[in-house]
Amino acid sequence: MKFQDLQRINARYADELKKAAIETIDSGWYLQGKRIAAFEEQLCNYLGCRYTVPVGNGLDALRLILKAYIEMKVMQPGDEIIVPANTFIATVLAITDNRLTPVFVEPDPQTYNLDIEKIEEQITLRTRAIMVVHLYGRCCWDRKLKELADKYNLKIVEDNAQAIGAVSQQEGLNGTYKTGTLGDAAATSFYPAKNLGALGDAGVVTTGDMNLVKVVQALANYGSSKKYVSIYQGLNSRMDELQAAFLSVKLKYLDHENQIRRQLASWYDKYITHPEIIKPQTQYPEGHVWHQYVIRTRQRDKLQSYLEVHGIPTMIHYPIPPHKQACYSQYNNLHLPITESLSHEVLSLPISPVITQSDVIEVSSHINNFFSQRV
Ligand SMILES: *Cc1c(COP(=O)(O)O)cnc(C)c1O
């Protein structure tokens, strides 16, 4: 068993992917062509959003949204962005790369997502946006977010890197329900191991705001919307035709694959029976696409070694929170106890469209055995 068997995941679509690759190679057109346009339309239809800007990767999608808001004078360097302390480093890199200041908010220990109740106490005169991360594929959204954004005139930016296909129980700012369309703008990653994975790097910005689209498009293209005329000091971050062609193939199967992940999660739920293990909770099944299935225990490191000896691959998402990373020495002294204890207790179990019920039974029985053997 592999934690993420990308070869087997993509082998299921090998014929279609190879055909897409050959057609793209033969077309002689590799950037900003009809495959990008087709993928954009397909993605807008899937998500129910107005606009997409395909870009180089998920981190760039996040960076470009914030950079565009700076160009639009919605925010300026030094302003504060509320961000979950419990997230992948890229969420925070997008903020600091734009010389904005991350303000870390602790997660809800039940969902591991940003604790919406703790946002308001962190809002200051310099707060300009709330970044929500749908961590592990679980939608992070609540009416309260909308109210806070209205009350303090804040943008809501979604880091949807882990959650494409997830659905909110409550409507977003635009009256829509899918993650990636709930806030003012969203970034999605198509890194190969994500739920919708390209065969290389790719990402997308989605939004209903035409002005934002124009600025992000220009920024991602050297800062120019007309050839050789530069309005902004931009960068080069474009999704290529080949990745768009692959993603068009795989997007058709996303809902089916997410359904497989839900089924696997419910099997883990059933077969992991030892009371010492804290299993993820779900109140609203459609709200979760199970990018990761994450359990918790104080014995995490010992359990991980035990499983490794028995041939069960696991991972830790994430062993060091952003504020404890060496690159953020200015935040190392912050005390965020929930985030820090999660980083010592979480363990991600294999979950992907090529994991089977018998894999789940095997993993679960090793976990149950580990605890039964200990006194
Ligand atoms: C993967 C990921 C990103 C970055 O996406 P890339 O395409 O790898 O740049 C950002 N945020 C979160 C939460 C992620 O999981």
Span between termini? 29 Å
Choose one word for the global shape: globular
Run of helices and strands: HHHEHEHEEHEEEHHHEHHEH
The count of β-strands is: 9
Strand composition percent: 5-15%
Q: List ligands, each type once.
A: pyridoxal-5'-phosphate
Query: pLDDT average, as an integer?
Result: 97
User: What percentage of residues falls in helices of 4 or more residues?
Assistant: 25-40%
Structure report:
The structure is a single chain. The chain is α/β, with parallel strands linked by helices and 375 residues long. It has helices spanning 6-11, 14-27, 34-47, 58-71, 89-97, 143-152, 210-219, 241-251, 254-271, 300-309, 337-345, 357-373; strands at 51-55, 80-84, 101-105, 127-133, 155-159, 185-189, 203-207, 293-296, 346-349. Strand 4 (127-133), helix 6 (143-152) and strand 5 form a beta-alpha-beta unit. The longest helix is centred in the C-terminal third of the chain and has 18 residues, at 254-271. The protein is globular, with a radius of gyration of 21 Å. The two termini are 29 Å apart. The model has no long low-confidence stretch (mean pLDDT 97). Residues 57-59, 87-88, 90-91, 133, 159, 161-162, 189, 191, 201, 203 line the site of pyridoxal-5'-phosphate. The site of pyridoxal-5'-phosphate has 15 residues, from helix 4 and helix 5.
